Amino acid sequence: MRPNAQRVAASAFFSLFYVYTSFVTGSHAQLGTSTVINVSPILQNAAAAPTVDRSLVSFSMELMAITGFTESEITKNIMNAWFDKTGGRPSVRIGGSGMDKSIFLPDQKEAMIYNQLPESRWDFGPSYFPIIANYFPKDTEITFGLNLANTTDNWKNTIDFAVAAKQGIPQMDRFEIGNEVDNFVRNNLRTNPWTVTDYSSQWTKVANMIKAKISDVQFQPAAYAGTSPNGFDLKQLVAAGVHNNNYRIPTYSLHFYPQSYCGAGRDATRLDSLADHNLLTTQLNLFNADIAAAEGAGGLFTFGETNSVSCSGAPDVSDTFGAALWLVNYALSAAAKRAQRVYIHSTLTTAYSMFLPKAGDNVRTGVRPMVYGMYFLAEALALPARNSNTKFLISPVALPNNAGDISVYGLYSNNNNNAAPAAGIPKPGIDVGKRRSVSTITTTIRVSKSVVLQAGVQTIMTTSLSRVAKSTVVSAVTVTTRTVRRVPVTTRVPVTTTVVKPTTRIVRNGGSDGVMTITTIIMYAAHPTVVMVPSVVRRRQTGIKTMTTQTSSVIYETKMVKAPVVTTLTAATTISWISRRITTIKTTVTVPVAARATPGARAAAEPSTNKGIYLARAVVLNLSRFNSSDEASLICRSCSKGSPPGFGTQGPRKKTSVSLSGFQPGRKLKLLRLQAAGLNAKSGASVSGLTFSDDTGAIATQAKPESVTVGADGNVNFSVLATEGVLLVDEAVK
């Protein structure tokens, strides 16, 4: 729960989809019935697609509110609904603003007491831990928040709290030390100057003292509120020594709220902005450097506290169906950026809580629309069978014309049992900057063999292997000098060619059918070659002379190409010797010469020779705005008030026609819809008719999915309403 909510959104990695769109949108417009979206999402490079964590949607709960969640079966039932589908137990982060107001009192009988004097704080006793340990399943990963603000006696109380929590909660997986430390000055927990260097110094002191008490302890550092003007970012934190060389750090955490309800920020909260895919993309792109820093330090990146609107959420925004659509769009976008998980933050009765486990002032227990977004995601990531080892790769669609009203994601099985038809030898690619020129290297492999034939027809299968290496000259350096002279520059491009020495070994088997086994052994010898680039001569000019020289830097990509050759031979009844030349195999490699290399460029290892991987699942979100005028849908029993009436969209609710290719032709697909009366609806949400009980959080009615069939041309056609999500599932993909 933080006042600064400026960081966020979208898929920065290369999209392997092709999307064609033809529609007209406005900031509040519905997409019309004439809209046709053609998508061809066959995944060609599985290595570029991140794997989605089975616990993608997890929970963040306030330290002082956790007992309220554990007093209700709603919490457990909703978490189990996710686990039953995905096989991944939602993780629980126990933290928030209460972390830095917590005191551990080992002699206190009560689990928790709130004290206002001399200052606001929460006192916890040993009986607090069994409440957590006995409620959550044994395989739940729990992250526990500790107080960094209280430095009394060199953080002695914080160390005692950590040791007691580790002993009292078997599910304890890692600790956070301090919450949103980049806001410590604003919250009067530190005085200026307060920098990331100061924070890292204090964090390491506390972490080292905990390590001395708990040998196998793990940490989740940072927990920053988000973008900060004072330089709090993961790159600087890692540089200060908070990394896996010194500590066990499986994840680094940052917080994300796309909007804020703090102070003056509440006037800017808007439901329609929450449904804007382009805005989400822009916000999430701000985390690119932090994700890279976390991975560079040997950890993963996670959104350790997140929700629609900070400072407890905004009524009529956080508690609407718009928040459910946002959750689906956000979670999949985050996963596509390699964020491990999104921890949805909740308190007991506030606007952004996914559900209310306990009744409060003017509200009853209940399940809000965001839970349906979570369940829709669970269906998208559902295991094909219980105890399956399948995980899903994700690739988002980059829509042309920056269309913010449609969002599409493809999901693929990591078992690679859904390969598209072979399309020959793929051209190798390399991750470089802007291309300026291209050179081509062609290698030719000829294979000859001698075959001993017996009577009858024999089929001989051989496999020719070629290794191709390519090189790229990179980086340009511009210098300015007052000395004018002729400067010859020669660039040498090392190129490795492969010379093949075929060897044939003939082995007769002992079978009565006379079939013979022919084994061809290919020998390789690498020979370096040097390609000379012409000299560059600089001519004399008056005044200051600027010269550009190229420096040699080599990037290699090696590819194994397998090209099977089948030869069928017919022999006479007598044994004869036949020498036959197999067809020449040519491999052409295009080598780009770039001005500079993209940081972290690396070769793809042994890419597949098939055309790609068919879709296992696809999610299509129609985010064009449709608000309901049905007053019954604008209220809910767990909401403090209903959505304002009189803001319904004029005219009928429109549909968008979709033609999608990428599934295997002829397959029958299950179709599920995330639906409600409108973006502003607070009740009546469902996943194709599936609903949850407001009293228990258990599934009350089951889904009734539709069925669509992929045509022989590979296209599947369906429609999606404005403000609706569609999930397509090929249940034959394992």
Please outline the helices and strands.
Elements: E1 19-21, E2 36-39, E3 57-62, H1 66-70, H2 73-86, E4 92-95, E5 102-104, E6 112-115, E7 121-124, H3 128-135, E8 142-146, H4 152-168, E9 172-177, H5 196-213, E10 222-224, H6 234-239, E11 251-256, E12 259-260, H7 271-274, H8 277-284, H9 288-296, E13 300-306, E14 309-310, H10 321-336, E15 339-346, E16 355-356, E17 366-367, H11 369-380, E18 392-396, E19 406-413, E20 435-445, E21 448-453, E22 456-470, E23 476-481, E24 492-508, E25 516-532, E26 545-550, E27 557-571, E28 576-581, E29 585-594, E30 617-622, E31 655-661, E32 668-675, E33 686-687, E34 691-692, E35 699-701, E36 706-709, E37 715-721, E38 724-729
Parallel strand pairs: 2-31, 3-4, 3-15, 4-8, 5-7, 8-9, 10-11, 11-13, 12-14, 13-15
Antiparallel strand pairs: 1-2, 6-7, 16-17, 18-19, 19-30, 20-29, 21-28, 22-27, 23-26, 24-25, 30-38, 31-37, 32-33, 32-36, 32-38, 34-35
Helix pairs in contact: 2-11, 4-5, 8-10, 10-11
What does this structure look like?
This protein is α/β, with parallel strands linked by helices. Among the domains are: 52-389, TIM Barrel, CATH 3.20.20.80; 435-594, no CATH class. The chain is 16% helix and 32% strand. The protein contains eleven helices and 38 strands. It has an eight-stranded parallel β-sheet. Strands 18, 19, 30, 32, 33, 36 and 38 form a seven-stranded antiparallel β-sheet that branches. Helix 2 runs parallel beside helix 11 (369-380), helix 4 packs across helix 5 (196-213) and helix 10 (321-336) packs parallel to helix 11. It is globular, with a radius of gyration of 31 Å. Mean pLDDT is 76; it is low at 2-28 and 422-610.
